[in-house]
Amino acid sequence: MISPGAWAALRAAAKSAAEGVAKTAAEGAAKSVGKETAQSVAKKAAEFASKNAGKIIGGLAAVAAGLYAQDKFNELNGKKVGITKTEAGSTGLAFGIGANKKIVLLTYTPALKIRNQDRIAIVGSKTTPSIDGEYDVKDAKTDTTVVIDVGKDVTGYAPGGDFTLKTTFEAQVLGLMADTAATAGEAAGEVLEAGGEAAGKGFEGLMKGLGISMDTVKYVGIGIVVIFIIFVILKLMAKKKSG
User: Is the pLDDT score of 147 beyond 70?
Assistant: First the structure.
């Protein structure tokens, strides 16, 4: 069994590392959205592989993770989709009381994988007033729906127009981490539960056990390498104890 002091130290280290990953990646994405090019991404991928040599990111070696993010950027950046429906993205309480009319839910086709760190540029919208412009993604709900804050009250909704995706290298790395964290987090959470160290199940149980804010997790996912480190440490300790 891990001593209370050792567990506290491990938890503090994990929290610091996870929030550091979140902060650095989020800041990088914010700075480069709209300015990212195939050339800048290729440079970032090389730097990413060099700085993280030997690490596992999203279940892949850093070199492979960087190349994956580069390929996804080249595949997705600049993709245009049609807006098939617009509606209120904030319903508020009963009868729309408290609803934020600046929040809009867009339904689009064809399906496109959008990340919460991306931006979209809308052209030809049919809402009242027009919502043409470039916006941060507030919530990438599904591969065909996305929520944005247009910064002004929308009073009339109608389909029409299209938008272009603007993504970054950082957004794709974070997406890889988020896509794989749930599976790894569930496995690690089960190990922690078996040792009586965390309450709840799966990813959320693991994060609660580590004292990591779920707001941080929801915004940028979690550094998968942190989860694997904890998982390996606990497995080794369990093996040593049984031996």
Answer: yes
